[in-house]
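Input/output pair, single chain:
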Amino acid sequence: TTKDNLDLLKKQINNFQDNEQLLNQQIFTLQKESQNLEQQLIENQYSIDSLKTNLQLTLNENEQLKQQYDELQQKNNLLINTNQNLTNQLNEYERQSSDFHSQDISKQMIQKDIRHTPIQEVQIHRITPVRSTYSPNIEEELRQLRTDLTASSAHCSQLEEANRAWQQFHQNQLELFRHKLKDSIPLDENFTLEQIAQHILIYIQQLENNNQLGMTYFNINKN
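Output:
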């Protein structure tokens, strides 16, 4: 019986050693998982902070671009109005110029008639001479108006080109931003920047919730 007792004791010791080894292995595994989880939590937090920072920078840049676009639009509208005013003035001066030339032709015809009219009739013509309202400087004003109109039209074209360039730049930035996020967040290619920002905020909230759950689990296992 003593031998049996010793054998039983040895068996119990072996079982205890096996259990201890298994427990140590489990502890090591838990420690490894805990380290991995802690590292994952750190990386998640970094991703959250990075996303928040990039989102804010992008929104700020977009706001600046919108302000620049609005300024371009205001300048463009002002130039369009200026162009219209210059065109109206030019048309008015050209109308006056046409009227003057018509009156000048009539005057020349009257003067021609006078040279072939008896003296008595000449006196009658002199009583009602042809008067012109045409300004002596109208040709110079017309030239200046045409010059101003040409310059204004050229400036309008430059602003329209700048406007198209801005829209293309904005679209490129949007595509670049969407490309950076495609592996993390599913985004529709037709989303506007505001819609992308909303989806990023939802994704960040999900990450923060997962992080909180992971931290709770980590603290429970740690204790």
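The chain has four helices and no strands. Confidence is low (pLDDT under 50) at residues 116-134.
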